[in-house]
Amino acid sequence: MNLQALTVETTPISDISQLILLLDQHEPLLWMRRAQGLAGIGTALRLEFSGATRMTDAAVAWRDVVAAATVTDPLNRTGTGLLAFGAFAFDDSSAEKSVLIVPSVIVGREDGVCWVTRIWATGETPPEIPLELHPLGPEYRLSLLPGALTPDGYREAVAEGIRRIAAHDLSKVVLARDLVGHLPAESDVRRSISELALGYPDCWTYAVDGLVGSSPETLIRADHGEVNARVLAGTMSRGTDAAADTAAALALATSPKDGDEHEFAVQSVLASLRPHTSHITTSEIPFTLKLPNLWHLATDVEGTLSDGSTSLDLIAALHPTAAVAGTPTDKALALIREVEPFDRGRYAGPVGWVGADGDGEWAIALRCAQVSPSGDVTAYAGCGIVLDSEPERELAETRMKFRPVVEAFG
Ligand SMILES: C=C(O[C@H]1C=CC=C(C(=O)O)[C@@H]1O)C(=O)O
């Protein structure tokens, strides 16, 4: 690939508390959790990938970008220097492009340290440092309505999944449905991003190439030879009072159906990471993770990298986990293609960032919507189906999972 060489310069700055207000209203780039993270402005380089090799191609292209770059980074911290935001399609045959985007300006904030990184084509003029805050545009309301798969259609799809599992075709499949709407012209999507970040501060709030959401699931984080992941699968609604809420968490923790659903997801992550790690551990038993809209069953995984893989190599190895596809993977993907009458696009694919040393943070793009340049919005939510699943309950679970996006846009 013939790549434009980049010059990169990171400078410390005084505290900037409002990453979202720095963003461009039309092309916001954001990776944030608990008010810390990375805001990207403008585009220095955009790389697109598609097909079965989209992630391994991105890993190769990124090594070339890094090799050709001249970087001045006195801070040398996680998230400083050259980096790209990325979002990858779920399916090998998706019509949606997978992207790596290197912004012209990145503003970062972590542990009270703030910095700005400027990136430009070598030999050209460096970009300005636009540290102005842009107030949010007018309020808007958007109704998201059933898309290609209606609630009835979803019940039928789940019933078909259960039939196939009962016939021993596969053990688990994750089936999703879609909601669609249209944003009024000139809507400032940063409003919805702010709502997501405020409502779900412990999740990864992201915006990459029109994909916006707040994900609780860390696909992989690679930092100086250590890797970690948070595997989620198994869901219960929150209780209406404290006692009911505790009972809901307990019911989730002891549900054999959710336990099975969870174990498939953990095993898929461990199997993908083992060849790349010398040492790998998981939290002893799954724990219940409380989110504002629901409870999840969670397992944290930690390991030590043994083969110099970058975070892009790791997402290529991990995707798709059984939290978003199923077990076995090939059978689950075939059934998803058969019964979901829509392209998942980047929903359930990896979203995050990669740095020059290959370290990075990637979530699974859940609780999200894809916003097209013309304002079309498509949101997605899915559920893990196992033998004991019930179509009506799974439909109710998708409603819980849509809540972050429905409220952020409504
Ligand atoms: C597929 C989704 O969630 C996954 C992650 C956590 C819990 C899940 C579940 O309980 O089904 C799913 O595996 C989604 O939010 O669209």
Automatic annotation (TrEMBL):
Superkingdom of this protein's organism: Bacteria
The keyword Isomerase belongs to this UniProt entry's keyword annotation: yes
Xref: Gene3D superfamilies: Anthranilate synthase
Keyword field: Isomerase
UniProt EC number: 5.4.4.2
Residue intervals of the Chorismate-utilising enzyme C-terminal domain: 152-401
Family named by the database record: Belongs to the isochorismate synthase family.
UniProt name for this protein: isochorismate synthase
